[in-house]
Amino acid sequence: MYRTHTCGELRKENIGQKVTLCGWVQLKRDKGGMIWIDLRDRYGITQLAAESVNTSAEIVAKIDSVGREFVVQVSGEVIERYSKNDKIPTGDIEIKIEDLKILSESETPPFTIIDNTDGGDELRMKYRYLDIRRNPVKNALMLRHRMAQEIRKYLDAQDFVEVETPVLIKSTPEGARDFIVPSRMNPGEFYALPQSPQQFKQLLMVAGMDRYFQIVKCFRDEDLRADRQPEFTQIDCELSFVEQEDILNIFEGLTKYLFKTVKEVEIDYDFPRMPYVEAMEKYGNDKPDIRFGMTITDISENVKGKDFVVFDSAEYIGGICLPNGSEYTRKQIEELTEFVKIPQIGAKGLVYCKYNADGSFKSSVDKFYTEEDWKTIAAKMDAKAGDMILILAGEKERTLHGLSELRLRLGNELGLRPRDTFAPLWVVEFPLLEYDAESGRYHAKHHPFTSPFEEDVKLFETDPGKIRAKAYDLVINGVEIGGGSIRIFDKDLQALMFKNLGFTKEEAEAQFGFLMNAFKFGAPPHGGIAFGFDRLCSMFGGVDSIRDYIAFPKNNSGRDVMANSPSVISQAQLDELGIKLK
Amino acid sequence: MYRTHTCGELRKENIGQKVTLCGWVQLKRDKGGMIWIDLRDRYGITQLAAESVNTSAEIVAKIDSVGREFVVQVSGEVIERYSKNDKIPTGDIEIKIEDLKILSESETPPFTIIDNTDGGDELRMKYRYLDIRRNPVKNALMLRHRMAQEIRKYLDAQDFVEVETPVLIKSTPEGARDFIVPSRMNPGEFYALPQSPQQFKQLLMVAGMDRYFQIVKCFRDEDLRADRQPEFTQIDCELSFVEQEDILNIFEGLTKYLFKTVKEVEIDYDFPRMPYVEAMEKYGNDKPDIRFGMTITDISENVKGKDFVVFDSAEYIGGICLPNGSEYTRKQIEELTEFVKIPQIGAKGLVYCKYNADGSFKSSVDKFYTEEDWKTIAAKMDAKAGDMILILAGEKERTLHGLSELRLRLGNELGLRPRDTFAPLWVVEFPLLEYDAESGRYHAKHHPFTSPFEEDVKLFETDPGKIRAKAYDLVINGVEIGGGSIRIFDKDLQALMFKNLGFTKEEAEAQFGFLMNAFKFGAPPHGGIAFGFDRLCSMFGGVDSIRDYIAFPKNNSGRDVMANSPSVISQAQLDELGIKLK
After folding, report:
1. A210 in contact with B at a CB cutoff of 8 Å?
2. Do residue B557 and residue A186 have CB atoms under 8 angstroms apart?
3. Which of A25, A415, B15, B386 gives the lowest tally of CB atoms within 10 Å of its CB?
4. Strand A211-219 and strand A161-162: pairing?
């Protein structure tokens, strides 16, 4: 061992001890005869000190030669610091340098290794091994480690078995977003990388494993939206002989356990549950942030038939009530109007009505509506004097989306979305099917093995879009943390499902063949859930981006800018794999 | 929840309780009016009982209709069994069936779900989800789970941080055994799947993570020798500011901890350490099974110059002493002779000398050697009256290999290799370099970052093959469980190493560029180790094959016979990836 202690552990109690530390030079200060070095390792920072006159010339020369990020080994006595630093746990002591050895030199790093670095994103990614030396990234990875350990501890105690499923799996004709891997031993044939271990975890239930989990890499070869990664990590689980209620309870338990052990946040209430339809109507969103109110009210019937053609011609008119918004200036309202007009929202305009402190109303459409009209609307929306009502109109789905975006923006502006407040929520009763206008048929919203509510099965005949699925999402602070479903294990129901999804027997066989075969030999009732682990970590870390919670992430083009990957390969390699470039 | 209890938990204390169980029908017995069902789940087997006369006709009809591997839900009272079964923990009780619901039917499984199944390997793999229902496979996966949890617990307590390294990494020109993955977003470019996270774990040390571990999938696209898998799992670790001694201690500690917690085997001694040279000389093998003796003795100088041309012309003559072997029959000796002549061993013949119980010697080469000669040899080999000396001669390396194989075979025959005895061993001081006759130059035996012994560095000039590396393997019962090395972190030594390996600067840059760049910014002294997790599990399970310790293994052609993968992909997919088949 090169050291007796780490740079994070020496305290007052160690004063007088001879110690040896190793680490990176964070900072060197030279003040007329006294030199201090801040020595850093994963565990902390310890101050080293040398007084030129009392230190050998050889050592002084060495100290002189070390620069930032040099790796050194230092021996000396732990002494009490003259001016203490109460910001770090080692702040009471310093090491009187008696010997110093340079283990490795360092070029000047391309950015400074401090919490608020001067390195831009691209530079940080290129030198990720330096970026990880910085506390924010290091702590993010440590948090991820802690969470992984606690997740396994909880699930292990609940009788879950960790099973590794294959990474080289079958490529399916419909696997358009699969990464594929040519097989050298089987020329012309390919493996795929799993988008999720879905079929394997269901097979494990057929295999009687009862409760399965895995913290597992999954892969998706698609254009990366902001903050998506081609490889990402899931906490993947499946259970037998359970109903939806059991799964929600167990994973609500996991979430509470993690908040408690990792964040020391106690959540002592049941997570609220909200049907999908309610989430859409009230929040315009299937992952509502319920840290704050300002929910949406459908005021279509209150505003139609008053000769305002914009509302009269709209499918839907909805509003949100901005607390204490009556004092908003024209400029502020204009900004909100510009916001709802951006292409991602696409509203034609924003109607407002100020409910003044004196009880009067002032709206942008006073021509069409009376005080009485507004009083009724204000009552319906639970608006109070001093508030402002904001209204969007148009096609229903799009308008709800717009109101949702407006609500979230105002929530941010008003400081109603604090990072250290956590509002978990189960969204339940998702629709089983989703109508796809392009293909003119229904698709499975989740996947084709998701079980419908028994009492809704009859709707296959009349109104498939209304069938509710035993599917659920865990949402925290408006972020989808994970989701899952109870699976169909009855083969007649499965056949009905495939029929309604427009699968021929052959297509179903090609895509789900080995799972369907397995179901012939006694499938237990089962269901599961998967959490996005990268996202869960960043949520716990209070950060929006998942990138710093991944040690070596890729950029938005799927590139590792550090290794410069992907890259070209040699003709010989292509030949051996039996493929060529087009 | 479909059940109140599992099939493994009911005991005498539960008698009188109303319970509901779920599981698979293992067995049904019908004995004139009484019907018993063995109901199985992951946790055990519970007997169900129904007396026709006291059971409703509807339930009796249902019981009649269930067959093997049907999934049923049964409710009833826990009653005392008339004839107890002390082989299972639930053997004192049974459930008096009051209600039974068939959850899933099953076709007749292609093999019986019992410990000693009638299913052949291929069939078991095709229906792996049924195979896993069998105890041996289920228990293997449970053992693997337990080991994974305990490994993490130990390493976490030792300040190791679990960091996920990427699966989509850079393909290098020399990565001939890499699986490669075409990138849709970067046409003409490819990722590779990691053969190990070697470079990433070293980067994490440069990044200051201090102690890293991961239980991680690795990939190798090569012809599969028996019991190799294209994807396999490693316990991968790296540590900073440590010497070889520290790593051996920590991972000896891990191994002992696992033996104790998982196998209840206490190993209360330090693992012996054996230099590579000694392992080769004494065991003919760099992974000696030290559960038994019968070590090899070099008797070249004792047998040469006696006019026996076979020995006189041989580079090396070595022998092993077979205890109590003097009674071996001619037939037994002939079998051994045939054995050493198989192509994998390739000896020309086997010379033997019986050291008879009466003290006389009888050899197959009595023409050339006297009693006195044999007495000297016997003394050197520590042979006793009643033993037999077995001798091979020829090219040294090949002969040692032959003696090793002969020794292991005899060890098996004599029952000297019991599965429940564990003999761990560190093999140390591996050669740094290996001479490759074909290319006429030295290659790194481990990898080019492996550190040589300081005192051997001068041998680069004179005798590179003699340079010892700070590399080590953990061997248990003759099986290599893992290995690692202290890495070079000094750039001058690294340059010397590359030079001696015949790398140009450009080649080194192409293959190890981003790691070498990282080393410019302060690399700590570091080293690591990796254990083969599949192998470690099968060792703990007392089984030679790793296959049953992998949930969904591939066969020797890299095929998943269950999913029938790899498989062809569509032209559209190939087009989108910008590749075509040759």
Report:
1. yes
2. yes
3. A415
4. parallel
CB contact under 8 A, B566 and A189: yes
pLDDT of the residue at A511:
80
Q: CA angle at residue A149 from A147 to A154, to 5 degrees?
A: 90
Nearest CA in chain A to B492: A104
pTM of the complete model = 0.95
- Give the separation between CA A251 and CA A530, rounded to whole angstroms: 10
Chain B nearest CA to A550, separation (Å): 8
| Interface TM-score (ipTM) > 0.90 | yes
User: Where, residue-wise, is CATH 2.40.50.140 in chain B?
Assistant: 12-104
Q: B567 and A190 in contact by Cβ < 8 A?
A: yes
What is the location of CATH 3.30.1360.30 in chain A?
292-413
Q: What architecture is the B292-413 domain classified under in CATH?
A: 2-Layer Sandwich (3.30)
Whether A336 contacts A330, CB under 8 Å: no
- The Cα-based distances of B393 to A171, B278, B336 in angstroms read 53, 19, 15
Cβ-defined contact of A221 to B186 (cutoff 8 Å) = no
Q: Are strands A93-104 and A71-80 parallel, antiparallel or unpaired?
A: antiparallel
Task: CATH number for A12-104: choose from 1.10.8.60, 3.30.710.10, 2.40.50.140, 3.20.20.70.
Answer: 2.40.50.140
CB burial readout B434-473, b (16+ within 10 A) else e: eeeeeeeebebbbebbbbbeeebeebbeeebeebbbbbbb
pLDDT in tens, A372-427: 999 999 999 999 999 999 999 999 999 999 999 999 999 999 999 999 999 999 99
Of the candidates A210, A520, A577, the beta carbon closest to that of B180 is on A577
Rounded Cα distance between B279 and B425, Å, is 11
Q: B540 vs A140, A152, A380, B534, B537, CA distance in Å?
A: 35, 22, 69, 10, 5
**Backbone dihedral angles phi then psi of residue B25, each to the nearest 5 degrees:** -75, 110
The whole-angstrom separation of Cα B143 and Cα B128 is 18
Report yes or no: A103 and B524 within 8 Å, Cβ to Cβ: yes
Instruction: State residue B216 phi and psi, 5-degree precision.
Output: -135, 140
CB-based contact A170 B217, cutoff 8 Å: no
- How many residues appear in chain A? 582
Chain segment B42-84, per-residue pLDDT in tens: 999 999 999 988 899 999 999 999 999 999 999 999 999 999 9
Distance CA(B564)–CA(A577), nearest Å, equals 19
Chain B residues inside the 8 Å CB shell of A569: 171, 173, 180, 190
B103 in contact with A, Cβ within 8 Å: yes
Q: Which of B3, B181, B209 sits opposite A132 (nearest CB)?
A: B209
B333 exposure class (CB count in 10 Å sphere: 0-12, 13-18, 19+)? middle
Tokens found for residue A258: 């993690």
Tokens of B4: 């109140």
Helical H runs in B342-483? Answer: 371-381, 396-413, 459-462
Tell me how far apart the alpha carbons of residues B220 and A485 are, in angstroms, rounded to a whole number.
35
Q: Cα–Cα distance between A334 and B358 in angstroms, integer? A: 113
Contact between residue B80 and residue B10 where contact means Cβ atoms under 8 Å apart: no
The reply to whether residue A167 touches residue B142, judged by beta carbons under 8 angstroms, is: no
CATH architecture of the region A137-273+423-550: 2-Layer Sandwich (3.30)
Confidence of residue B500 (pLDDT cuts 50, 70, 90): confident
B225 interfacial to chain A (CB closer than 8 Å)? no
With CB atoms and an 8 Å threshold, state whether A133 touches B208.
Answer: yes
Q: Quick one: closest CA in B to A210, which residue? A: B42
Residue A82 contacts residue A69 (beta carbons within 8 Å):
no
In a 13 Å sphere around the CA of A292, the CA atoms on its Cβ side amount to 19
Q: Which residue in B has a C-alpha nearest to residue A172's C-alpha? A: B569
